[in-house]
Structures
1.
Amino acid sequence: MSKGVTSQKDNYATWYTDVIIKSGLADYGPVKGTMVIRPYGYELWENIKLALDKMLKDSGHVNAYFPLFIPKSFFASEAKHVEGFAKECAVVTHHRLRTTDDGQSVEVDPESKLEEEVIVRPTSETIIWSMYKKWIQSYRDLPLLINQWANVVRWEMRTRLFLRTTEFLWQEGHTAHETDEEAEKETLKILEIYRNLAEDYLAMPVLTGVKSDSEKFAGAEKTYSIEAMMGDKKALQAGTSHNLGQNFAKAFGVTFQSRENKEDFVYATSWGVSTRLVGGVVMVHGDDKGLVLPPKIAPIQVIVIPIAKNDEDKIIIMNQINDIITQCAEKGIRIKVDDSNNSPGFKFNEWELKGVPIRLEIGLRDVSNKEVVLARRDIVDKQSVKLNQAVKTITNLLDEIQKNILHKAADFRDKNTVCVESYKEFKNVISNNGGFVRCGWDGTVETEIAIKNETKATIRCIPFNSNPKDLKCIFSGEDAMYEVIFAKAY
RNA sequence: CGGGGCGUGGCGCAGUCCGGUAGCGCACUUGGCUGGGGGUCAAGUGGUCGCUGGUUCAAAUCCAGUCGCCCCGACCA
């Protein structure tokens, strides 16, 4: 266990916070619920962002930026959508401060009260659709495929680093289409991109499926999500893709002239993933030593630790290793030397805490053997390799680690996913082992709520590969309408 | 908003019950010896004890108020 990090077994929530703070991913901001994403955490986010941005652009989407502030009046436009966010909106009411009479502090200048209050976006559907109304007239203007990288604010009661902060970073895509089919296709295409991002880059296996009505996005016809299992067996909704139907078009009066020369409301989608993904990476792969970062997104993939008794040794060692560092850098491997004055043992622990996939140790012993030592973070393993094999081995190892942690996470999830046939069994699994429970559901909200109230478990999704045939509802005993995944969730 | 905990050098804490010189560990600075799993010795730097008011000769400590944070719940990505 790493010094100062609570073990997962003792308290998972505290472990999570400890790891994030001590590894330097993030820190608490001065305003309750806010978070400073520190350089190490931000680079991790940037790497995720870079991968996703490319996939979105490759599939025909373009980036744009819409304002942070939304007129309050926009929120009256779409009742259902507003209902979902009204309780957690930050509202700007004034635009000026003044010095207090005693000259000691500042206060809001009542003279500066705004005519119309302004909402800090909790999501951008309303402002984007107000603009789409201006931009869309004909089917020739469609599809409109815009993505935005932005910050949003949701004034949550309880927050947790990365998983739920008052302000967070995300991307939100907002698309407009001619037909329902096209919108549905887009919604699913994005879900598939999210699945790729999670599995291929974050090494985070996910279930894909559709949300139950009560869990779907405010104002959506259908919400699809990717759901991952964390190290404590709870579920994390890691990304959502919504088919909004014509709801927003109707709310904002966005019509277009169709190919048949008829006026119709456009069909919409919206979708997003956020810095929450970073929290997911921490919880899916992390252990008591700290982070375990997937090589593809790790800010540092190889950390070099020279073990030298004095400055002369250090020079000899660096001469030996410089070539490898250059070759790695040329191949795009993110490699860094820790030549600080800390002891080797300290560095080992430090970089394990930070989750660097490969550690390269080199001392005089290795220099004379023309070797380096490679240690991997995902398993306990150290090997000596010849200098001329080092770059190749590192390349292979990075690949292997990426695969291994994905498999490990998938195994863990599968081991903790069970099918149950009685409610007694259901409750037993949820309260004792935890994890995902696969079972029949009669499709009623009443059942969903009753189960949630009694067990805290919610329907994570109706998986694409599910089949309700011959299943009974776990709660009511009626014929099942869906086969679903239940779990306690973040 | 309910329950719990906590505010004392950068971080973690002791001291508060029973008022009397503000302390410990880590970190930090300088130098020496070290270096293959969180090294070591020496010398240093750093604090209006969350804030406001009260009691007192005297308040980190007692009293009243207030602000803030963390954890657990309800709500949520």
2.
Amino acid sequence: MKNRHFASTLLHWYAKHKRDLPWRNTHNPYIIWLSEIILQQTRVAQGLPYFEKFLEKFPKISDLASAPSDEVMRLWQGLGYYSRARNLHQCAKDIMTMHNGEFPNTYKELLKLKGVGSYTAAAIASFAFGEAVAVLDGNVFRVLGRYFGVSEDISSGQGKRAFEALANEQLSNENPAEYNQAIMEFGALQCTPKNPDCTSCSLQEGCFAFKENLVRDLPVKLGKVKVKTRYFNYLYIRCGSQIVVRQRPAGDIWQGLYDFPLEETEGALLQDIEELTFFGQFESKIEKIEFEPESTYKHILTHQRIFANFVTFVIQEKYLSKLDQWVNESGMELVSADKLESLGKPKLIVKFLTDEK
DNA sequence: GTCCTGTTTT
DNA sequence: AAAACAGGAC
């Protein structure tokens, strides 16, 4: 007989402390999948409004599959990690075309879906279909790492395998769904990264980290991110009621979102508009120019630090066709302010547009 | 390693 | 104000 103290304590704690969240009252795999993709790398408080918007707009997976991708990206605007939105949409289409609109119902098959990795596959398999497979997310690493005193690095392959084995060993086979929810909720509310509430903890007695005073040091996470700095000189070009926009290409940040024509520089932002290639081409046709290098925006990502300036150009309306030609040749678009509002944009762009008003 | 934004800590 | 942190897929 295995020692079930850990699992049963978590299950009791969960029954008493769990939050009532909309995706917890269903076995509908579409709703569970949607919530899990939105909550990847995202806290409940930030993801909840997006979950509600998406479910209202797309009540069924067929609704999501048939939506234009710009609409999906616009709805995702502000949530970050936009590949999740692209994968979400592609996955919905794949399920309609390759699975007759029905979700796969095993961990193994779920893992093949776009945007579904080991965590999300385990979550859907257990929550929707009751499969006995343990989830492994940041909360689970922390709770297991502390309670059992695992000192392996969670970012190494060896560490991950050790945690996976331990997680599946502790999993309640009677109720894998409740157990998975319980350990993650426990990590989110009780066994938090900073200042966990050890004094009121029902697992305190058997906790290795508490006993050895290692709560602050577990789990072990090595590996550092090196941040590179980039300089974006944005051109905010208007002509009559039209604005020049550009959809961001593959191979860089914010793929599929819209921003403005951009001249990126090395080492520093441009200090003079005459250094902009665009200025040379349109110098004689510019009515009004605003250049405010003092209002530089700083935008921080995990791996990049971006400094951005926005230079406003107002082109005389009689040169619209000339501008239109340049826009088309450069693979960009001229859109109205309303259209621009409706497009999915990075936070940096939304912030600039808000500040403009 | 590459992908984002919001919150917490310093 | 800046840095650190939180949160998985590819």
